[in-house]
């Protein structure tokens, strides 16, 4: 899997901040606001921020993102300082409409000439941009490789995004688990939320009469079904809605895990690399808001190539799980040995 690129994440977050400035009620963004609110700058000192922000603006200009700067901008509290804005008229692309056949070809093109993981990575970029255009909240935004996107067709993705932006209701087939029956569900969609390498459709569930999120790889056959009657509340945080939904019935924890390079990819994909070789032969990752049961099972499956360092409760749970497996294996071997002895006699 492609490793995270802090520079690319920072530039994407900066671009999305400018794209959403109007919706935030800000014609211009000041350096102070960007320093405080855009991920990638918040931990920098004043001087380091100014140098990095100036370099990032130059980089964005080189790739065609027209950032304009005015030397004297008066803030609401009367302070005069430099400020910046995106020249949206020079940046926005005209609307492009594809026939179903063309959309299918474009969807398939993402899988041609590259392996499946890179195809999903390419599509995740499209999803990130399109979801932002569908009014996704940017609080705590991350640029994330969304593995689930490989499971949805280009046509279904287009229908979801169009419904979000145009205020349309949708219906779709939903299968909660591989062995469960498929249900037809109805929703007023609000947006797509990437979270820990998964992608969720969030909106108002018309069947349950409440906000709900559905993992994208469990839905199919999406159709538009009239005008939505439950628009997204302005203050609704879609990321928090998904996180709280997942938290119900699960114990979500922050964890630190040491992993040998090239191993336990389902853990590294949802973690952030924080150190290399602190433990000889292992890289150290921090995992935020992961289900403890999933972490214990995954770390045990990859032992000894993955070691849970913290929290202690999860570490002890992994050890207990491995001991239980070893004991069960020992009992099975003894039973097999007894059976073999009886057969010989």
TrEMBL record:
Domain of life where this protein originates: Bacteria
InterPro entries: CBASS_pafABC_assoc_protein, WYL_dom
WYL domain residues: 157-223
Transmembrane regions: none
Entry-linked PANTHER family: PROTEIN PAFB (PTHR34580:SF3), PTHR34580
Name recorded for this polypeptide: Putative transcriptional regulator
Protein source organism: Corynebacterium epidermidicanis
